[in-house]
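Let us practice reading a record.
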Amino acid sequence: MGNESVRETEKKAISPINGVALGPGPGRPKGSKNKFTNLKDAFLEVFERLDGIDGLEAWAKGNKRNRAMFYQWLTKMLPTSISGDVKGDFTLTVKKVITNERPDE
């Protein structure tokens, strides 16, 4: 970390309410490693070490709370929008399912 260059930012307006600088910060310095990618890679490696898909399935089947958590994670990984060009007829069915089930505390 010795010779890393630090990018200076221009002076930003200061909030009159709390004295905090307004606007975004300088961001990640050019050439530095993306820590999110490293974290994602670490989780994927641990996933494989913990029996991969079979281990995840066993965990999700372990109890209702784990199963509910699995489905919460799954919904966060699904795309929020789909786009494309369609030629011809097509049918799109969207179904929202709401249950009153709660995971065991």
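A brief commentary: The mean pLDDT is 81.
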